[in-house]
Write a structure and sequence with these properties.
With about 325 residues, this protein is mainly beta. The chain contains three helices and 28 strands. Helices cover about 5% and strands about 40% of the residues.
Length: about 325
Amino acid sequence: MNKRGSSISVLDFGATWYEYRLARHDQTTQNVLLNEPDIAHYLNNPFYLGATIGRVTGRIKNGRFTLGGKQFQLQQNEGATTLHGGPHGFAYLQWEGTILSTDEGDNYLQFSRQVDQSLDGFPGTMTVTVTYSLSEDDIVDITYQAICDTDTLFSPTCHAYFNLNKDNQDIRNHDIKSNAQFVEALDEEHVPNGILAPIDNDMYDYRNFKNVGQAIKSIIDSNHGAGIDDTFLTPAGADVTIRDQESNLTLQTTADRNGVTIFTANGFTPTMQTNKGAGKPFLGIAVEPHILSNAINLEGFGNMILKAGVNQTYHARYHVSEGV
């Protein structure tokens, strides 16, 4: 908790971001994250609510890639595809949590884990830490660090879902803006096919604020999907803004990766139980910075290779503020 009274909480299962509770100007607090009521729901969490994703975010075609002249076959968990690190990815692991304090009195939540090839199929034994911090300005910084004993892949993210409404409305009343100018084109299995499609006043053009509900409708009407579930090229680093004019809240997400996936919870079902009620499509919006999906199999789509002995660090920042 910071001096303003804002706070975050994180679960050690999946290093899962559970709450982002903002101190409002009217002396109330508001949690802007979707979460579930108990650990049983997180053990069966097909939509990865709040979870840390890794070793690799997004989809890997046929669960297969070549590294150092050797082909690796991963476990597949979405048809023939490996999604979000596979069935034994970071989201499904128990992490060791620690509270760290600085001399200035700042606190950090750090989660550590060692993952080896026998567990998730990726090469090498990796030591990874995920550190959450909350500033006095209500900025949440997530730092990912990893080192491995052999060349491997590393492209993590946070799969938090945001809903800025004070009540239980879905996010179709929100607006979205992004610095992306290209979107990854997909094959029939929803895996990037190596084409970056330019955004030009079409359904994916969020260079100026666009109503999320209208964006979803455009995608559905054009038979391109059930809502937003796409990865965008952000060569200067991800910069996505979500705002809700009714609650007067704005979320800005920035990160140091060349891609960002935006997902409007299109497949949520009533069997899910959340703090916003039973699951339903569009109940939240996820903003997931990462290296472009399937980049290991696509030339020029980004480098997700972590070289042996190199300590790699990535950052993502989430800032919810009052005033739009």
